[in-house]
Amino acid sequence: MIGEAELRARVDAAIAAGPALRARPREEVAERVAAAWALIADPERAPGRAARERLPETTGLSLPMIAWALQATFERADRQAHLEAARRMAPPDDAARAPARLSALVLAGNVFTACVQPCSMALLAGSPLIIKASSKDDVLPSLFVAALAQVDVELAEACEVVTFPGGTPTLESALMSRADVVSVYGSDATLTAVRRRLAPTASLVAHGHGLGAGFVSRDALENEDAARAAATAFALDVAAYDQRGCMSPHVIWVERGGGVDGADWASMLAAQLDRLAADLPRGPLPREVGAAQIQWRGVAAARGELIEGDGWSVSYEGAAALRVSPGWRNVMVLDVDGPAALGAALAPLGVHLKTLGVAGDAARRREVAAALPAGLAPRVTAAGQMQRPSLLSLADGRPPWEGLFRLTALE
C-alpha cells in the first residue's frame, strides 16, 4: 500500500506535469492517448498480452469475456473517437477555457474498462490525473500508463496510478484535498465518504450505484426470427461483464401485442444465454452472490416461470413488480403495454437507471426516450449495445468531460 509521503510526492509530480500537458495541442494528445490504448487492444503487442494474462485473475472474469470486453471497448475508443472528443472540447469564441489543475479518478472494481473514458478525457482536457484504482484490480489503468510511456514519456508523467484501501482518511485527504475535480465510480456510501474529503472549491462528478433495463418493442416481435434476433442482442447485454456493471440489464420489459408474447420471448432469451455460457463463460460465483442468487431464483419460481442453466437464469413473471437481480446473469422478463407504461415502471429507479436498451428502430428509441419521466437520464441505445458505450457517450446525463475544465464568459 502506498504511504502518505509517497502519495503526496506523486500528486506534486502530476501537478508539475500540468503546464507541459496544457501546452500540447489537443489533437496531438488525442493521437498519443489513442495509440497507447491501441497497444492494449492488440493481443499481439506486449501490453495487450499482459492484459489478457493478468485480468482474469484480478477481475474474476473468464478469458473469453476479457477478450470480448477489450475488443468491444476499444473499437469505440479509437483514434477517430479521440480526435472528435478533442474537437468538441474546444471552447466557444466568447469564452476562455481553464483546465482543472489536478483531476482524481476513484474507480470501483466491478467493470475493469470503466477507466478508459475518464482517463482519456482528463488528458484531452489538459488536466493531470491521479487514478485511485481498486485495491483488487489496478491492471488496466497501470497498463495504460505504461503504454503511454512507450508512446509519449511527457504525457505519461501527467498520469499516475495509486491503490490504497477505501476509508483511509490520511491518504484520501492527501489526494482529494489537492484535486480540483474528483470523479468517483462506486457505491452511494463511497460518494458520501469522498464528498467529505473534497476541498471547498473542488467539483465532485458522481457515478454512483446503477443498473440497466431493456425494452422489446412490438416491432421486434413481429415474427419468431425478429424476436430471436432481439433475444440474441439482449443476451449479450446480460452476459457482458457477468452482469456486474451499471449498464447491465436486470429486467427486460416485453411490449404486449407483438407476434411473440413475453413468455415465449423469455424462452428465446434463455436459449441465447445458454449459447453464450459456452462462448463467453461466466467467471466463478462468489459465495455471497450465490446466497442472494438462491433467494432470487426461489422467489422467481414462486411468482412465475424460472428457466435455469449453467451459470444463468431467466425469470418470467408477467406483470409483476420489478425485482433487482443479484447480477451474475440472472435476469427478469416482464410484460408492459408500451412506452408510457414503461416510463412509469422505470420511474422508481431514478438516477440509478444508467442505460436503457431498446429492441426496435431509431424512431422507437426516440419514442421511448420521450416517454421517460423527469429525473431519468439513461443512455438509450440499441439492444446488443448496452455494454458498448462510445467514448463520447454522456455519463449520467452529463458530457464525459464534466468538471475537467471551467469556461469563463468573455463579454
What does this structure look like?
With 411 residues, the chain is of the alpha/beta class. It has two domains: 4-208 and 396-409, Aldehyde Dehydrogenase, Chain A, domain 1, CATH 3.40.605.10; 211-382, Aldehyde Dehydrogenase, Chain A, domain 2. The chain has 16 helices and 14 strands. The protein has a seven-stranded mixed β-sheet with strand order 9-10-11-8-7-12-13, sandwiched between helices. Strands 4-3-2-5-6 form a five-stranded parallel β-sheet, sandwiched between helices. Helix 11 links the parallel strand 5 (181-185) and strand 6. Helix 1 (4-16) packs parallel to helix 10 and helix 4 runs antiparallel to helix 8. The mean pLDDT is 96.
Neighbour order of strands in the largest sheet? 9-10-11-8-7-12-13
What is the correct CATH architecture of the largest domain? Answer: 3-Layer(aba) Sandwich
Largest sheet: 7 strands, mixed
Structural class: alpha/beta
CATH domain topology of the largest domain? Aldehyde Dehydrogenase, Chain A, domain 1
Series of secondary-structure elements, N-terminal to C-terminal = HHHHHHEEHEHHEHEHEEHEHHEEEHEHEE
What characteristics describe this protein?
Aldehyde Dehydrogenase, Chain A, domain 1, 16 helices, 14 strands, globular
How do the strands and helices of this protein lay out in sequence?
Elements: H1 4-16, H2 18-23, H3 26-41, H4 46-59, H5 63-74, H6 79-88, E1 95-99, E2 103-106, H7 116-125, E3 129-133, H8 139-151, H9 153-156, E4 159-163, H10 169-176, E5 181-185, H11 188-197, E6 203-207, E7 211-216, H12 224-239, E8 249-255, H13 262-279, H14 287-303, E9 305-309, E10 312-316, E11 330-336, H15 339-346, E12 353-359, H16 362-370, E13 379-382, E14 405-409
